[in-house]
Automatic annotation (TrEMBL):
The keyword Transferase does not apply. It comes from the Bacteria. This is Fatty acid cis-trans isomerase. Keywords: Isomerase, Signal. Pfam families: CTI (PF06934). GO terms for molecular function: isomerase activity.
Length: 807
């Protein structure tokens, strides 16, 4: 029987190979042989150019789904280079792979079209005989658009079931040679997928450009005023002394994912800090290392600034550089007296541990560097170098506050010698790179974490033999109330998350208080040291280690609570026998024997703590949340109009919805309140906060859900990269909307509300609504803003029996 199966498989394999060969011959005869086409600096015959005519359409319509690692078929339509690279069936997200995959980062891992063909990408533009008819007929992109035009989305209330909108849906990455079969099987799957089609003008413009050969004139690489600014910064980053080299390496390893914006340049012009084989003054030749601390493989190398193309919200983390920032870097790293005797190795055992690699730099300087832009660094791990992070993000709660230890009060964050001494205990999984020895590594890091916490506890006891613990002054006040990075809020939206400045929403279940070694390790664990292409061991150990860091931040917060309430509070965070046992083994209440120095006058110490913290930080952070945390029911902020106050009085009623009634609401809904003509419509975000019994395990989140504790938050403006729904209501009917929200209790009643107020994928005005949200967000945040991703936009669809609905 075994021989028969082998023979059958051999026959099937030979048959498929034969079909492929025959298919290739047909296309060679019809369209000519395959050959990579040079499209740059070509002269368009139609008068349409990529940057002026085509890119705006792709940015408005196509980058809504094709812009990040989770873009279907890795087809990134945010830039010409992404279009020219094409598509592949290779998956970025694969949590079960045994060995690491080769990375496929656009602009980094290959810089030529042949290079991408060698990496398994096939063209979506014609790469055979260059004639207008062939350019259209042999272009996957053109045929996807024409498929949509021939089979427009059905004009019905509900989207057909044939559309697969799950995150785990199979890739259908057909090259042009097999597109006929795809078209027959999925006639409704043209682009834009499961959304209304392009306008006739947009459709015709792209097809004319494709027929003309998909050409691009090379644009200016920088704005005229950028050259001098870049030259000064590249001079700064490429100093030759040991101290200058170490400081530049430290800054680079923290800013490598940043979209850098220079003061004085256009608001949408961004750069990346990269390592290059070429010195300033020559074209950048980026070194494509997987991690920023990997050995560069060449000496000397240079830090360069490389322009980055259009951005979308989900991977847009902005870091601002200016003359003021350069003076700040000099004050932090070059004014203090210290010696750098040698440069650290790029060996992972050293380079993956920042507290070891950069021990020669003053700890106080490093901590202040991070605090100055704490929102950026926390945002780095929340958004991260990836676009989909549910396994990583289920290590955090859906809503929590973050505060930081004051750098002048926290001795550990200032003591370079102590941190150097304990640095072996603070090693990170990045040193193991891709491993399968998960359990052994976990036990090693767990043991090291407990040793570190015990050593830290003993150190603090020596400094404070009176056993008096932290008080409010140990919380960083933003340098005297001048820095709005002092307090942060994190909202998690299943597999993505958002960081906001200030304390937004109701007081959450948990909070973190972060010191320097904790903040540094978070960055190196989840940003600098994380490889989305890494194997299952790397991703699992990273997730498990983040447990330690989250619990350390939570324990720091508990140190400010009354000692007789700490165990009770933590038990509420970690419910369930397995969670209790895991917490006891991994994270005993080390360092919490000292009584808090905070004075409390109520039985709600958590609420009272944040009231005191807000007063301590001062007006640089709003003292109240006008919608979610407004005890008086009237919490105006500067510039509020009577109209806005009336709207928010009604919206406040929606935030009262709690428990299982919230289950049917999407994670993130953008709300547009339509005002009379000549007034600006108002934007809000409705966020569902899902409660868990604990965060102690990587999988099985649904088994740990506590829907009875779910809540809703409503925030001014736009929160989140992936809207799940657009809600629209006239300003004089907001109270009616609140009434209808309050009546929702299941999928059917949600559907009845949604058919009145939610803009669905089948709505003819869908793109108008999407454009309004993108435009409004960008107007409010001209530097930090970007386009929203529609990959998570929900649908309302009929069940198989045609009687009920689901979303």
């Amino acid at each position: 029987m075994g021989k028969q199966w082998k023979a059958l498989l051999l026959c099937v394999g030979l048959f498929l190979i034969g079909c492929g060969v025959q298919q290739a011959k047909v296309f060679n005869d019809r369209y000519g042989p395959e050959q990579v086409v040079s499209r740059v600096d070509g002269e368009p015959r139609t008068g349409l150019t990529y940057y002026e005519d085509i890119r705006p359409i792709l940015e408005k319509r196509c980058s809504a789904c094709h812009s990040c690692y989770d873009a279907p078929c890795q087809l990134k339509l945010t830039s010409f280079e992404g279009v020219d690279r094409g598509a592949t069936s290779l998956m970025v997200y694969n949590a079960s792979r045994i060995t690491a995959d080769d990375p496929t980062r656009l602009f980094i891992d290959a810089d030529t079209t042949p290079g991408w063909r060698d990496r398994g990408f096939h063209p979506v533009l014609n790469e055979r005989t260059q004639e207008p008819s062939v350019n259209r007929e042999n272009s996957v992109l053109a045929r996807m658009l024409e498929l949509k035009a021939k089979n427009p989305q059905p004009k019905k209330e509900l989207l057909p079931q044939s559309f697969d909108l799950s995150l785990a849906k199979a890739n259908n990455c057909e090259p042009s040679e097999s597109f006929d079969s795809f078209e027959e099987r999925y006639p409704l799957w043209g682009m834009p997928y499961a959304l209304p089609g392009l306008t006739r003008e947009e459709h015709d413009a792209i097809l004319k450009w494709i027929a003309d050969g998909g050409l691009m004139r090379q644009p200016e690489t920088t704005s005229p005023q950028a050259a001098d600014i870049i030259a000064r910064w590249e001079l700064f980053f490429n100093g030759t002394s040991l101290r200058e080299q170490l400081v530049s390496r430290y800054i680079y390893e923290h800013l490598f994912i940043a979209h850098i914006h220079f003061e004085g340049l256009p608001s949408r012009e961004f750069y990346r800090l990269v390592r290059s084989t070429t010195p300033p003054g020559e074209p950048v030749d980026e070194i494509p290392s997987v991690r920023p601390y990997d050995a560069p493989g060449i000496r000397p190398f240079y830090y360069r600034l490389k322009k980055t193309p259009a951005v979308v919200v989900k991977d847009h983390t902005v870091y601002r550089l200016s003359d003021t920032k350069m003076r700040r870097f000099n004050d932090l790293f070059f004014s203090p007296a210290y010696e750098v005797s040698s440069l650290p190795s790029f060996d992972p055992n050293t380079a993956a541990n920042p507290l070891r690699a950069f021990a020669q730099l003053p700890a106080a300087s490093r901590y202040r560097f991070l605090l100055d832009d704490a929102h950026f660094f926390v945002n780095g791990f929340i958004k991260g170098p990836v676009c989909r992070g549910q396994v990583a993000l289920n290590v955090i709660n859906d809503h929590f506050f973050v505060a930081f230890f004051d750098p002048d009060k926290d001795m550990i964050s200032n003591d370079s010698d102590f941190l150097a001494e304990v640095s072996p205990l603070l090693a990170l999984p990045g040193e193991k790179e891709n491993t399968l020895n998960i359990l052994s590594i976990w036990f090693t890091y767990s043991r090291n974490q407990k040793k570190y916490l015990k050593t830290k506890d003993d150190y603090i006891d020596r400094l404070h033999p009176d056993h008096i613990g932290n008080d409010i002054t140990h919380i960083w006040d933003g340098d005297g109330g001048t820095n709005d990075n002092a307090l942060l809020t994190v909202f998690r939206h299943f597999d993505s998350a958002t960081v906001l400045k200030g304390l937004v929403g109701q007081v959450p279940k948990t909070a973190w208080v972060v010191d320097f070694p904790l903040l540094e390790r978070i960055h190196y664990l989840l940003v600098a040291g994380f490889d989305v292409y890494g194997n299952v061991g790397h991703q699992a150990v990273t997730r498990l280690y983040m447990d330690f860091l989250r619990m350390e931040g939570e324990n720091n917060f508990l140190s400010f609570m009354p000692s007789n309430r700490r165990e009770e509070m933590r038990k509420d965070w970690y419910q369930g026998t397995r969670a209790d046992l895991k917490n006891h083994l991994e994270n005993p209440l080390l360092g919490l024997s000292r009584e808090t120095g905070v004075t409390y006058g109520t039985q709600a110490p958590k609420d009272e703590f944040f009231e005191q913290v807000l007063a301590h930080v001062g007006p640089v952070i709003p003292q109240q949340d006008p919608i979610n945390r407004c005890p008086s029911g009237h919490c105006p902020t500067e510039g509020d109009t009577p109209q806005r106050l009336a709207v928010e009085k009604s919206l406040r009623r929606i935030t009262a919805i709690k428990g299982r009634k919230t289950e049917v609401f999407p994670d993130v809904s953008f709300l547009r309140v339509v005002t009379p003509p000549n007034q600006e419509d108002l934007a809000y975000t409705i966020i569902k906060n899902k409660a868990l019994s604990n965060n102690s395990f990587m999988f099985g989140e649904e088994r740990r859900r506590r829907p009875e504790d779910d809540t809703l938050s409503i925030v001014r403006g736009h929160v989140g990269s992936y809207p799940n729904a657009f809600v629209r209501i006239d300003v004089d009917k907001v109270d009616t909307l609140a009434n209808r929200y309050l009546k929702v209790k299941d999928e059917v009643t949600y559907y009845l509300m949604a058919r009145r107020h939610v803009v669905r994928r089948t709505s003819p005005d869908f793109w108008d609504e999407y454009d309004w949200h993108c435009r409004t967000f960008l107007n409010a945040h001209p530097v930090e803003g970007g386009t929203f991703d529609l990959y998570r936009y929900i649908r309302i669809a009929e069940k198989e029996d045609g009687t009920l609905v689901e979303w």
